[in-house]
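Backbone shape codes:
***
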Amino acid sequence: MRVPLSWLREYVDLPATETGRDVQAKLVAVGLEVETVEQTGAGLTGPLVVGQVLTIEELEGFKKPIRFCTVDVGTANGTGEPQEIVCGARNFAVGDKVVVVLPGAVLPGDFAIAARKTYGRTSHGMICSADELGMGDDGTHGIIVLPPEHEAGTDAIELLELRDEVLDIAVTPDRGYCLSMRGVAREAAIAYGLPLRDPALLDVPAPNAYGYPVKVSDPIGCSRFTARTVVGLQPEARTPIWMQRRLQKAGMRPISLAVDVTNYVMLELGQPLHAYDRTRIDGPIGVRRAEQGEKLTTLDGAARVLDSGDLVITDNRGPIGLAGVMGGADTEIADAAEGAHTAEVVIEAAHFDAISIARTARRHKLPSEASKRFERGVDPQAAAAAAQRTVDLLVLLAGGTAEAGVTEVSAPSAPRTITMPADHPDKVAGVAYGRETVVRRLQEVGCDVYGQDELLVTTPSWRPDLAEPNDLAEEVIRLEGYENLPSTLPTPPSGRGLTDRQRLHRRVGRALAGAGYVEALNYPFIGEAVLDQLGLEADDARRRTVRLVNPLSDEEPSLRTTLLPGLLGALRRNDGRGSHDLALFETGLVFRPTGQETKPVRLPVDRRPSEQDIASLDAALPRQPRRAAVVLAGAREQAGWWGKGRPADWADSVEAARTIAREAGVEVTVRADRHAPWHPGRCAALYVTVAGEETLFGHAGELHPRVIKELHLPERTCAMEVDLDILEQAVDGVLRAPRISTFPVATQDVALVVGQDVPAADVERALREGAGELLESLRLFDVFTGEQIGEGSKSLAYALRFRAADRTLTVDEASAARDAAVALAAERTGAVLRGA
């Protein structure tokens, strides 16, 4: 909403010294978002005057039409002689009154005016257009032609109100009443503690049976419809300059007198209006829902197919307008500038349902000034006053006559009341305002307040957003000043820190970051296409998704069931922008519906939900495990003077899983597996022990070449994804810090020959169990195959570290532990000590 300061002063006697910046600060303090204060006419200096064109000489021999004019500017030039001016515009004639800038003046943009020779003549000034004066679009796209009543030599700066300040206010959806000068003036009056001259306080005649006939078939969609008729509009009547300038400053283009008046009243009172050419209306005006498939050509010239949910204005022929959005072309007010004239108008001032208008405007992609106001809430009591104000202006400016008939169709309604304890705002804000302050502030916003300790508050018709005691408390708090609220930190009860799940989540993130991974946070949405690109089978559980009712993108309408699509997309984008050595990670929720979810319930807003309500809501939610995932591409270790470096491979993704597991104090068992989207020969299944049983908690490895091609990823891209909730379940009691022994370590190496199909994880498990408590760590450091081993066999070399917490181990104790480990491995896996 653009608010000219000069117009605002018409309703509130602001101090003469107050600037736009001062008013901005006051309005911001009471909760309005004043984004900018525009200085119109900044840098403009005169002389800028009204001139009358005396003669026009057409100059020949130039590529474009050029005219040499003499203009009467009164005594503004100091001589009283006609001013000679060269001009290229052609939309004015001899006798017209125009705006003339004389030598010595400066126009907006620091454009200095001086006498200069051009086209073989000397031009002493310039005849001005609206753009040159910074007035914006006046619809003429040429020289300003003024009404004939203005005398030559009159100061045009004051006449055109060129110097002003315009406040640009971003009106939030709950403050729709501020989409009017009346609403902003009310806020300014409260902010300054000054009285308001309410422009809606007019003497309105009572409804009678002589008005234009109106039939409302949908009282829910249209709760009030006022119709007034004005006849005898003069064809030569034009919109006065002061009204044109106010419309322009408010961001609207002047069109014709009747249309400009309705726009002006809408800006003034906040009530959208529409004027119909009565000679083009066939029969009574009706309000109803459209029939599916009906057609209407709106004022913008577009032929629209209507929906059964659209509210329309009709006559005997059918729809003549989209209610609250845009009128129809069939009943458009004729433009006198095009040789047509409307002498009789029917003025519509109605109140339409906000939701219906919002849906219609969005359905037809037709936002308008009217729909913007209706969907935020318009004062239903302002319709009659707005119609009367429109009638008064048309009678005054167009020489029309108001017919005695007044039509008003309205549905019964009762004032909205709210019961609130007088100290409720005090409790909400933590400030002792007191009953007197609460009552005063509520009365300032237009409420009627009764009662002592328990207040009965009747809210004003222009504030549909006031529905609950907290809404009233907010009004008191904002008017008393948000800046006056004390800053108080809440004191949390002891013993309620992070949960075990939250601690593990944070530790995992820190560990991966410490291992060289960069966190990439992605949107939790996926589409069916990416699941196809990942090569998931039709019965894969990851294809069972939760679809959003109103997705941000039609291409990603579902919640993710895996973290990989988002991470791989981030890797692809970064690789495409020149970052080829990448290691990314993400931790977050995935959404895995089981099919057992119930229908969601609607929670109450007037009370705290019960345990049963919350349990019903939880039952409607899908399972949401917390996961961690990494993706790698390019070099894992950079080349340099220290060595050749190496590329990332499947082993790095497995090590990332071990890094995560170490944060929980859990050992990971790795087994070969086949699982999309990983390469069938380079895919590892990751297991942890939960309640004594091995449990799958993720996969790692190199992605399938087909997946890499489909997703346009770098070659040999690797990935890992694990379930942190399962990892949390694997934690055996409280996570303990490692013990450090001061006694020396005894290292024993063993090389075991096993069958090619024996997993190294089985051998490792047997060695650990056989070695007993003295084993501190075990590491596989070599895998060898060849003729020396024999066909179908492989050699696994392990380094075993033994240490006791209370003594130095002897050679015999370390050897005995090693022999026991080898013996158990031989028993379980058929391992043979190499070289034995």
